[in-house]
Amino acid sequence: MKLGIVGLPNVGKGTLFNAMTMGKAEMANYPFCTIEPNKGIAAVPDKRLDVLTALYDSEKTTPAVIEFFDIAGLVKGAGKGEGLGNKFLSHIREVDAILHVVRCFDDENIVHVDGSVDPVRDIETINFELVFSDLEILERRMAKTAKLAKNSKDAAKEMAIMEKIKAELEKGVNARVIEYDTPEEAAFAESLELLSAKPVIYAANLDEDSFIAGGNQYTDALKEYVKKENAGVIFICAKIEEEISELTPEERAEFLEDLGVDGSGLDRLVTECYSLLGLISYLTAGPKESRAWTIVKGTKAPQAAGKIHSDFEKGFIRAEVVKYDDLVECGSYNAAKEKGLVRSEGKDYVVKDSDVILFRFNV
């Protein structure tokens, strides 16, 4: 899962990136200190893996991961190349979803590129640049398709869909909220890979007092604004995330408990990401390794096996499946099997979240 961190300059993107990934992104109190995106990986917190590792005495524990791209701050005119905008927009194309960091705190010592704090204005600035970029791409595609549409019914259908999308984009509507009449229309729209169609999570970056209080006037305005969007919202304090990133798991838990906060920003972000992108995790466990594998909800067993290795999918025979809770309650795989809790599933089985699976295959 690739997540691009975007936002205006100086909203806390670099601080959040470093906290999430324990990276070393350059940070400064001026725009464009980042040119090429910083890249880092964060493990997805998963207590189930600790339990399975202890149960199987596994030599290795491998969580699922999120790959973060800290993309340089966008400004007005990015879609026309302002502030190296075209370069930065191209980086957004590489990610699966966008984490849009929005500043929701006052601090006279931290420069705001527009001179004042206004999260709704900041969101509209970034969204406008994404939509403007999409319109350029769409118009180029339409110019090519228009010639084909004279003699091709399929091309004519594509033109009709693109005209519908263009009309909405021109109103300032993000592509991700456009509704389509058929699955085929939606599939074609997805194939266009428009920036404003990417799933978005808004991260409201708060000062410590507002974060502990559960928000402020800026977050109230933000929550009201995003009601019309198909987007998630989480509250974070990049400063707190930076502090706890240096702590041990035990110290981190104690620190968050003292603050009265339920989980770290990464925990909340992962939950929101999985929900927004329709993702789940299945598990594999054994003496060598206990591991979590991220798949899209609705994935069938052979394709889930292919996440481990393409040979598993090609030579798929069956999946031996036990629910995580049943396995833990029984204390071992064999005990679960004796109780009839291990099921043998074929090619049409849809993998569920928390399934612990042993794949049988032949190549």
Describe the protein in words.
This protein is α/β, with parallel strands linked by helices. Helices cover 43% and strands 20% of the residues. Strand 8 and strand 9 form a beta hairpin. Strands 2-4-1-5-6-7 form a six-stranded mixed sheet, sandwiched between helices. The protein has a three-stranded mixed sheet with strand order 3-9-8.
**Total strand segments:** 12
Q: Return the average pLDDT rounded to an integer.
A: 87
Strand order of the largest sheet: 2-4-1-5-6-7
Shape: flat
Distance between the termini: 29 Å
Oligomer: single chain
The count of helical stretches stands at 15
Which class do the helix and strand fractions yield? alpha/beta
Biggest beta sheet summary = 6 strands, mixed
Outline the low-pLDDT stretches.
Answer: 24-34, 81-85
Q: Radius of gyration over alpha carbons?
A: 23 Å
Helical percent range?
A: 40-55%
Q: What fraction of residues sit in β-strands?
A: 15-25%
- Helix-strand string: EHEHEEHEHHHEHHEHHHEEHHEHHEE
